[in-house]
Amino acid sequence: MASDRRTLLADAALDVLADEGMRGLTHRAVDRRAAMPPGTTSAYFRTRAALLAALVSRLVRLDQEELQTTAQDLPPLRTVEELVDAMARLTRQRLSGEGRRRSLARHACAVESVRDPELRAILVPRENAGREAVRLFLAERGVTDAEDRTHTLLTCVDGLIFDRLVNGGEVRREALEGLVVAALR
């Protein structure tokens, strides 16, 4: 029961962060969003740092689940077009609906982690099936530093997502194609 309540509160904190930003993320705001009595959030997460750590852990777990599911739905990546299609799908997921909300929260947490080593440690990119599919795709095409290029490519895609979160619109397919071609050079 306590772990369920912690998850509910972490989800509510994620929603508050997505809607109100870092300044709006308070124990009271999370209590209201979770429809819990005042003081509930602070009973489970005594400090703001503990609340942020729970939020970031939940965010990473949700992202990992999304990436695993997405990778399972994909056939093996054989062509540049298939890789670009997969990236386009991911960018659409990250820019609409619940994915957009998580993207807003993720970027706010990334900025916060600059001053918080505990958050930074939680946010470190993790191995997942999607990342591995990109690394294998590059390695199978003779890219000798496939791990580094995978990191660079996915960081660039994340940057495009951030730009579209801030400025609106979609990530253009041509931009994704250009990134893949550059990674293959």
TrEMBL record:
<dbReference type="InterPro" id="IPR001647">
    <property type="entry name" value="HTH_TetR"/>
</dbReference>
<protein>
    <submittedName>
        <fullName>TetR family transcriptional regulator</fullName>
    </submittedName>
</protein>
<feature type="domain" description="HTH tetR-type">
    <location>
        <begin position="3"/>
        <end position="63"/>
    </location>
</feature>
<dbReference type="GO" id="GO:0003677">
    <property type="term" value="F:DNA binding"/>
</dbReference>
<dbReference type="InterPro" id="IPR041583">
    <property type="entry name" value="TetR_C_31"/>
</dbReference>
<keyword id="KW-0238">DNA-binding</keyword>
<feature type="DNA-binding region" description="H-T-H motif">
    <location>
        <begin position="26"/>
        <end position="45"/>
    </location>
</feature>
<dbReference type="Pfam" id="PF17940">
    <property type="entry name" value="TetR_C_31"/>
</dbReference>
<dbReference type="InterPro" id="IPR036271">
    <property type="entry name" value="Tet_transcr_reg_TetR-rel_C_sf"/>
</dbReference>
<dbReference type="InterPro" id="IPR009057">
    <property type="entry name" value="Homeodomain-like_sf"/>
</dbReference>
<dbReference type="Pfam" id="PF00440">
    <property type="entry name" value="TetR_N"/>
</dbReference>
